[in-house]
Amino acid sequence: MLDEDAASEQIFRTTITLERVVSKTLNFQVGYSHSQSLRTVRTANINAPLGGTYNPAFPNSGVRPFGSQAGNIFQYQSNGHSRSESFYISANGKIAKKVDFWANYSWNTYRATDSGTSGSPTDAYDFSQEWGRGGFDVRHWFSVNASYSTKSGFSVNTFIIANSGPPFNITTGRDTNGDTSFSERPAFATDLSKPGVVITPFGALDPNPGPGQTIIPRNFAQGPTFFSVNFGASKAIKFGRAIEPKAPPAAAAGTTQTVNAAAASGCYGLSKPATRPPVQRPYTLVFGVYVSNALNHTNASTPVGNMTSPFFLRSTSTSNFIFLVRAAEVAPAATARLWPVSG
């Protein structure tokens, strides 16, 4: 159902960019971007058992605002919000007048109330502890592209990208408040001898927190980094019957065209002959090869955050970020800035 107070999302963005042309072959940019979203949509179970009334051993227990007969009532609410900031430095130009390049580094931060779903570790009606890192909160992004091409149609390019790991959420894997959302998080352990305490790279975690223990923040854990070096080469062969370009018509002496041509040549009264455009071919055949992750570097996916899983804190696959790298190879100009866009 839809909350009667639901409203359209509001997004505010501010971007400041300073660009400087250092030389004929080098351009430099520095920028800052800020984005804030209000009234983002989230889903909440408005008929979940009230805090402290639910016993996980008895699924039908707990006092519900609309009665147990009504069951779970999920409502779309527009009371979420997010905030992101990005600082970036980029450069593009030519190296030795033959190699085109662009490089970009950005530092980013993204925080939000949640990812669009409800759930609280202790109280299904209290989201005060849900403000934390968002899924796009990747701190560091770096990318560089260089390409070289010849008049004969041969070209070579390389694309390198690296970024720090994204955050991920650690959950207990149990629904202990009866809201049907398995999003409860453990607490920082205060007694290492307590049964169930798990020692992790992120500290000692207690999946059965007691009164007064501090619940870990949402998306508290850090995923693995990503690094990929990619190469591409292609050869374009033009063929077919040549299309001879038409020579520009001769202008009569004293006309504007004659005067302009004379001015371009640097001497009046004696104009240069018009340069004939190159011969055009109607067909082009391109042979290309692209090597993705040329260094064979293993990029692991985000680890499992469920504490009850046998794969807890382990990556079960490789990262699918490689698809973005492939897209960059097809259209590098469109991916010159590869930091996350939030909102």
Description:
The chain is mainly beta. It has one domain (10-238, 296-335). The protein has helices spanning 256-265, 322-330; strands at 10-23, 26-45, 74-95, 99-112, 132-133, 140-149, 154-163, 167-168, 187-188, 198-200, 203-206, 221-222, 226-239, 283-291. It has two helices and 14 strands; from the N terminus they run βββββββββββββαβα.
| Helix/strand class | mainly beta
- Overall domain count: 1
Termini distance? 24 Å
Unreliable segments of 5+ consecutive residues: 261-270, 323-343
Helix content: under 10%
Number of helices: 2
Q: Which percent range describes the beta-strand content? A: 35-45%
The main pleated sheet reads as: 9 strands, antiparallel
Mean pLDDT: 83
Rough shape?
Answer: elongated
Number of strands: 14
Order of helices and strands: EEEEEEEEEEEEEHEH
